[in-house]
Amino acid sequence: MIRVMLAEDQRMVRGALAALLSLEDDLEVVGEASGGAEAVAVAARTRPDVVLLDIEMPDRDGLDAAPEIRAAAPGCRIMILTTFGRPGYLRRAMEAGASAFLVKDGPAQELAAAIRRVVAGERVIDPALAAAALSAGPNPLSPRERDALEAGADGSTIADIAGRLHLSEGTVRNYLSAAINKVGARNRIEAVHTARAQGWL
């Protein structure tokens, strides 16, 4: 049996995935989580072969949780299953050690086959997204520029961002200015929107 864990914050989607996978003779759902931190704890406890991991979840997103899950359950393979098929997300998922990246609107029957392929050592990536990621190029933002954009996404002042990130106001201005220029935006709000659309944040 292939032991599968589900990490998905939408209960209905998680239930549907569990029901779908339970129809397969060789797949067993051994754990479920609704957030990133919970996913790490459940993976450590259940030691699944595969974790189906959503990206956007409360308390910690799937891309941040992925390496922690792999550390908590060595040998476990990570499959990102998301609504958000953004090129930047694919790159970040691969950097986090994911073995698969699939969008939720793909055919249901392909999911079980993808799980088996991943357990066999293959990488499974949505073909359209792979092509988009190659044409989009790498994330142009440095980690600190991403931090500054994220911290200012809610309209916070430079002083607020500086306090949150423990940086000087001048440093924050420099990071934001660099980020705005790199994504070709006119202002911070537009830069946040563009970076999120590409999956860079």
UniProtKB/TrEMBL annotation:
InterPro entries hit by this protein: CheY-like_superfamily (IPR011006), Sig_transdc_resp-reg_C-effctor (IPR016032), Sig_transdc_resp-reg_receiver (IPR001789), Tscrpt_reg_LuxR_C (IPR000792), WalR-like (IPR039420)
A biological process from GO: phosphorelay signal transduction system
Coiled-coil residues: none
UniProt keyword annotations, A-Z: DNA-binding, Phosphoprotein
GO molecular function: DNA binding
Cross-referenced SMART domains: HTH_LUXR, REC
HTH luxR-type domain residues: 134-199
Keyword DNA-binding in record: yes
Domain of life: Bacteria
Every Response regulatory domain range: 3-119
Modified residues (4-aspartylphosphate): 54
Keyword presence, Phosphoprotein: yes
UniProt-recorded name of the protein: Two-component system response regulator
